[in-house]
Amino acid sequence: MSKQELVVLGQDQSGCCPALLTAPLDEGQAVELAKVFKALGDPVRLRLLSMIASREGGEICVCDLTPAFDLSQPTISHHLKLLRQAGLIDCERRGTWVYYRLLPETTDKLAAVLTRPGQPTATEAPS
Question: Which of 11, 46, 76, 105 has the highest CB neighbour count under 10 A?
Fold first, then answer.
């Protein structure tokens, strides 16, 4: 068995923001993070993100999202558009339907920013 060191993906902080408790954010980092937090600041968008992220197989059709809400289809599409613009989800059109999937690199960055130094992140297994 090889004794290579395993690299935990998503742990490279060079292209990401520092943890909030280790260094102040610069203006650009704060602007980028604020976009994501603003997108997550609405209960409908938070529920949509949760439904997409927790879906078995990693993606869900818009036709399965819309009935879960007492909102019109254009309103759901608007919320999904804001989540896409924030970099939290992506989509793919297949025929007449659009399928949405989580972009884990964005949620991993959020987790890294919000994690206290020395604390395991969601992607790290406890020792």
Answer: 76
Beta bridge partners of 100: 60, 91
Residue 92's DSSP bridge partners are: 99
How far apart are the C-alpha atoms of 19 and 116, rounded to whole Å?
A: 7
The arithmetic mean of pLDDT across residues 61-72, rounded, is 95
User: How far is Cα 48 from Cα 86, in angstroms, rounded to an integer?
Assistant: 14
Q: CB under 8 Å to 29, separation ≥6 — which residues?
A: 17, 18
Q: Bin 2: left if φ > 0, else alpha if -120 < ψ < 50, else beta.
A: beta
Higher pLDDT, 1 or 68: 68
Which structure tokens are listed for 35? Answer: 């976009």
Q: 62 to each of 8, 18, 101, 102, how far by Cα in Å?
A: 32, 35, 11, 13
In this predicted structure, what is the pLDDT of residue 41? 95
Phi, psi of 4 (to 5 degrees): -70, 145
Residues 46-59 have pLDDT tens digits of: 999 999 999 998 89
Q: Which domains does the chain have, with CATH numbers?
A: 43-114 (1.10.10.10)
Q: What is the pLDDT of residue 62?
A: 93
